[in-house]
Hints:
The protein has 2 domains: about 1-180, 3-Layer(aba) Sandwich (Rossmann fold); about 210-395 and about 440-470, Alpha-Beta Horseshoe (pyruvate-formate lyase- activating enzyme), CATH 3.80.30.20. The chain contains 22 helices and 15 strands. The protein has helices at about 10-15, 25-35, 45, 60-70, 75-90, 100-115, 125-130, 130-135, 150-160, 245-255, 275-285, 305-310, 325-330, 340-350, 370-380, 400-405, 415-420, 440-460, 460-470, 470-475, 480-490, 500; strands spanning about 1-5, 40-45, 90-95, 120-125, 145, 170-175, 180, 215, 220, 240, 260-265, 290-295, 315-320, 355-360, 385-390. Helix 12 (about 305-310) links the parallel strand 12 and strand 13 (about 315-320). The longest helix is centred in the last third of the chain and has 19 residues, at about 440-460. It is globular.
Amino acid sequence: MKILLIDPPFRSFAGIFNMYFPLGPAYLAGALKQAGHVCKILDTDAAEGNDGEVDFTKEYDTYSHYIEALNNKEHPTWKVMGKIVFAEKPDVIGISAMTSKFGTAIQTARLCKRILPETPIIIGGPHATAMPELTMKLQEADYVLRGESEDSIVELIKAIEENKGFEKIRGLSWRNGSEIIHNPDRPFNKNLDSIPLPDREALMNPEAYTSEDMGVILTTRGCPYSCSYCFHMWNRTVRYRSVSSVINEIEETHRLFGTTHFSIKDDSFTVNKKHVKALCEAFNKLDFPITFSCTTRADIIDDELLSVMKKAGLIQLSIGIESGSPKVLQQTDKGINHKQILKASRLLNKHGIFWTGYFMIGLPEETEEDIIMTWRFLKRANPYFGGLGVYSPFPRTKLFTQAIEAGLLIADPPLEHFLTTNPKDLFFKDPSKRMIYISEDRFKALSAKAFRVFSRHNKNILNLARRALARRKLYFNDPGLLKRDLRKGLEFIGLKALPKLLGGNK
């Protein structure tokens, strides 16, 4: 069968810079390809080549553009999508749904049904997994896939072809007449090597991606930690790909796209140091040099491990710091403290590894003093880049449940709520009352100050130079990345006119 997988627009609507291809749909495309189907992936944010801003200090305000575009049927993005869907005329359409952009999944499904009313629509992804009942309220959704879906989608396509057997598919929610049926969950695949590699060649508009964009990979699935703000589609266990499987993907991506930098998107890459060291040893034996970045925790890195990783090509590492307030940090259930974070900071700076510390503000019980402590701790930890975000509540998390009990959130909003609400305000009964101890006006003032503090830190010329120095091997292998980074760097420090002289979008 002919299948079109759609990753709906989001960052392009808000005017925010976007990198990387959608990995989840690419895994599904790989499974469908192995099963003999023809599959294409429409990454809508990439379809128009919109560039977007790299300064996230006004992210909340930019989402007003998202809401406007979401509900404008004449918006160019919807027209582009409509033309592609009509031209492709797939037998089945699959739509990826994340909670923050569930509104675009809704509108994408409605657009596709208007164009191809007889074509079955499948919705999957984290939001469909967390809230399958709500997702099935979308009448245009014929099927919802929950959880890990490489096997499920292959079985579902076969059942659609034969028009039977839906009740046997684990992880499927479906309609039997007017009745919605939720089949039992599908157990996780214990052998990740049996899952086909993501099919990057299924991506439409390949010219929209750089070699770096194609380098996003996973070496594990799952996370053993229980952070109170985080929903894990793969639960609290970690499954590992073999070293040979990871190397096969790296070699294939390099052969097809010239990629030499790989962004490892594991939740906590260094949770198993033996696994990391084995991967690093294999990286060093490749016929071509690579660099890589990863995300991990402050309490699971050490001096020896960082030396091994840096030798194997590590150039950037991210850790979650979350808050400068010990009380708030404890409420996140990360199981780390500021002493461990500062120790990790010293280690990373000792090794000269460009590192990012991620912080967030706006948790329900946070006080004004807590927020002030967060921007002060930025100075103490001194990451080369500080990422700051406003807390977003996600279903099936501890903080979400606590906020429901505190009367701040609604557990089951209507579908139209996702079409009219800022993605940062989803589930709030009243966005002006997102916190218990801080008023809306005061939080706006505090968050504006916090974003200014982080922006000044990140625009420090030394930190910008450190990033460029860390990426020098990338620039040698792909000079186009240097051109893009120069443009984005000039935009980032406020010289928006100069990048036009450099031209191009990617």
